[in-house]
Amino acid sequence: MPAFLHAISLGVDVLELDVVISADRQVVISHEPWLNPIICRGPANESIQHGSASSYNLYQMPYHLIEQCDCGHPHPNFPQQVALPAVKPLLRDVLAATEALVAQLPSRRPLGYSIEIKCLPEGDNIFHPAPPAFLDLVLAQLNQAGVTARCTVLCFDARILRLARAVNPELRTCLLVEAEQDWFSSLKDLGFVPHAFGPNQITVTPAAVSQIRTQYPSLRIVPWTVNEPADFARLIELGVDGITTDYPDRLVALLDKKV
Fold first, then answer.
1. Tell me, what's the pLDDT at 51?
2. Separation of alpha carbons 50 and 59, rounded Å
3. Please, are residues 17 and 154 in contact by the beta-carbon 8 Å criterion?
4. 14 with 47: CB under 8 angstroms?
5. Is 2-32+89-258 CATH 3.20.20.190?
6. What's the pLDDT at 163?
7. How much is the pLDDT for 69?
């Protein structure tokens, strides 16, 4: 929660949130469907051994246990991070807090949300519900918060995106692909043209951008996860439509220089 609120203060226009499901069907913000031993401790403040993280399967833990786990320990890959005690929050609580903060800021446009549903076929009914139930739980929270029109649903799993299109054709969707996945076969397999396409930033080349602009002129290109100023500059020069980053401060500083 502190990071999301800080990102708003930096001036981001979209928050990217990964969501998983708890044992009691709560929508929880978490990058993994388990406790990451690098940044988290267990509900009794115990250390989590590497290799045993999946034993702390969030889909098998009710939220009252999840919220007892401190996941605010500093990650070694982010040495500038400010360490603060933090729990994995509920999606509804983050939406309420971020909407309230933006409403207090003068001249700020309404915030957008990119909601990544952490779903893979091999995880069905093990680390998350099957796609229909997973999507229903997430959309219920977005609808209740009144932010659906400002949301994009992201997923590496095409099943979620096909369902989202069937349930709400107006809902914006984004297909995510890993570095080893071919852009065009992935889009063809999806079966429709999504609102956005999220490739690994290392695969974004002038030739790839030119080709996808020709074949899919309406498709927004939003690469992930871009953290280095040189990559920001390269991608901006290529004309991407958005950038997903762990360092919005760096990106904002670069964009301010270009104004």
1. 87
2. 19
3. no
4. no
5. yes
6. 98
7. 98
Residue identified by tokens 């999504």 is 194
Residues of the chain where predicted confidence (pLDDT) is lower than 70: 259
pLDDT single digits (tens) 38-82 = 999 999 999 999 888 789 999 999 999 999 999 999 999 999 998
| Predicted confidence (pLDDT) per residue in 234-245, tens digit | 999 999 999 999
Structure tokens at 56: 């702390």
Whole-number pLDDT of residue 53: 78
Of the candidates 114, 91, 109, the residue with the CA atom closest to the CA atom of residue 197: 114
Question: Whole-angstrom Cα distance, residue 180 to residue 89?
Answer: 32
The residues near 79 (Cβ < 8 Å, ≥ 6 apart) are none
Closest CA to 131 of 120, 140, 142: 120
Q: Is 192 helix (H, G, I), strand (E, B) or coil?
A: coil
- Per-residue pLDDT, 206: 98
Q: How many residues does the chain have?
A: 259
- Expressed in percent and rounded to 5, the helix, strand and coil fractions of the chain are 40, 15, 45
How many helices and strands (H and E) does the chain possess? 9, 7
Nearest to 18 by CA among 197, 224, 228: 224
- Residue by residue, DSSP assigns 62-82 as -HHHHTTS---SPPTT-TTPP
pLDDT of residue 259: 67
> What one-letter code names the amino acid at 252?
V
φ/ψ of 28, rounded to 5, equals: -110, 140
